[in-house]
Amino acid sequence: MITAGVDVGAATAKTAIISDGKILSYAVIPTGDSVARAAERVTRAALEQAGLSMADLSFVISTGYGRNGVAFANKTASEIICHAKGVNLLMPAARTVIDIGGQDSKVIGVRENGTVSDFVMNDKCAAGTGRFLEVMAGVLGLDIEEMGPISCTSKEPCPISNTCTIFAETEMVSLRAEGRTREDLVAGIHKAVASRVVVMGKTVGYREQVVFTGGVAKNTGVKNSLEAGIGLPILIPEEPQIMGALGAALLAKAELSRQ
After folding, report:
1. Angle CA(9)–CA(242)–CA(43) in degrees, nearest 5?
2. Residue 83 in contact with residue 244, Cβ under 8 Å?
3. Which tens digits make up the pLDDT trace of 18-38?
4. Residue 87 in contact with residue 96, Cβ under 8 Å?
5. 6 forms bridges with which residues in the sheet?
6. Of 9, 47, 53, 138, which sees the most CB atoms within 10 A?
7. Minimal CA–CA distance to 224: which of 117, 148, 173, 113?
8. What gap in Å lies between CA 131 and CA 129, rounded to an integer?
9. Which residues of 189-227 are buried (b: 16+ CB within 10 A; e: fewer)?
10. Contact assessment for residue 227 and residue 234, using Cβ atoms and an 8 Å cutoff
C-alpha cells in the first residue's frame, strides 16, 4: 500500500511517498507559476527516486495553498493537521511545531497521538515569513542562503522596529547608511522575524519538545533567535520542508485503512 502527500506552498512544492508508514522517497521543487504543473513534477520526481510510477499510488492527499489545484489527489487536508502528523512520525516527543514558510508562519500545539491541540497562523502579513527574509536579503545584496552564517558572527544585532515589510526595507536602508555592519543588519532581521513569531505563538504556548519546520528552518540565525525568544531548545528535522507532505501521506494511509 503506497500513498503520497503533496504539499504545494507559495514558494515550494513537496511530495512524500510512503509505504506502510515508512518513507520511500521525497522531493522538493520551486512552485513556479503553475500549481498543477509543480504538483505533477514534484510527485513524478519523488516517484522516480523510489522506482515507482503514478499507477503505483493507492491514495494521494494534497495540502498547502495549492491543494485544490492537484488534479490527481483523491482528497485534500488542512496543512495544520498535516504538519502535526508529519512531525509526530519522526519526532513523537514534539509538543510544539513552529513552521515558517515562504508566505506564512504557524505555531501548532501537538498531542501525543499527533493531533492538533491548538494553533495560530499568520498568512496576512509578510513579517515573520520567508518572504520578509527574501526582501531584506535583496536590500543587502545577499543570497538568502548566506544570511544564516553571516548573522552568527554579529556582535550587536540592529533593532528593526518596523514589522511592515515596506517600512522595514526603508529602515534597513537607513541603518546601512549609518554604517551598521552587514552582520548586525542580518542578525537584526532574524531577530525581527523571530520576535513576530514568538509573540504570535504565545496564545498556543511553547512546550517541549519544540520542532522548527519549513524552509526558514534551514536558517541558523532565525533558529537561534527563536530559541532566545522562547527560552527553549529547538529541534529541526533532517528535511524540514517535507513535514506537511509527509503528514498528508500518512493521512492518505489512514484513509485507505478505513475503506
Report:
1. 75
2. yes
3. 998 899 999 999 999 999 999
4. no
5. 15, 62
6. 9
7. 148
8. 5
9. bbbbbbbbbbebbeebebeebbbbbbbbbbbebbbbbbe
10. yes
Residue 180 to residues 12, 157, 228, Cα–Cα distance (Å): 33, 9, 22
Look up residue 158 and give its DSSP letter.
P
Q: Is the pLDDT of residue 237 over 80?
A: yes
Three cell numbers at 8? 504545494
Q: Which percentage of the chain shows pLDDT scores above 90?
A: 70
CA gap 120, 114 in Å, rounded: 17
Express each pLDDT in 130-176 by its tens digit. Answer: 888 888 888 888 888 889 999 988 989 988 876 676 777 788 888 88
Q: Which amino acid is at 56?
A: D
Per-residue cell: 105:
508562519
Alpha-carbon distance 124 to 10, whole Å?
13
- Mark out the alpha helices in 125-164 (DSSP H runs): 130-140, 147-151
- 159: Cβ contacts below 8 Å, ≥ 6 apart: 188, 191
Neighbours of 30 (CB within 10 A): 12
Give the H/E segment covering residue 5.
strand 2-8
Whole-model pTM above 0.85? yes
For residues 237 and 90, give the distance between their C-alpha atoms in angstroms, rounded to a whole number. 8
- DSSP letter string, 170-200: HHHHHHHHTT--HHHHHHHHHHHHHHHHHHH
| Of residues 160 and 248, more confidently modeled | 248
The phi and psi torsions of 84 (rounded to 5 degrees) equal: -60, -45
Distance CA 64, CA 155 (A): 38
Which helix H or strand E contains 253, and what residues bound it?
Answer: helix 243-258
Q: How many Å apart are CA 169 and CA 178, to the nearest integer?
A: 14
For residue 186, what is its C-alpha cell? Answer: 542580518
Place of cell 514534539: 94
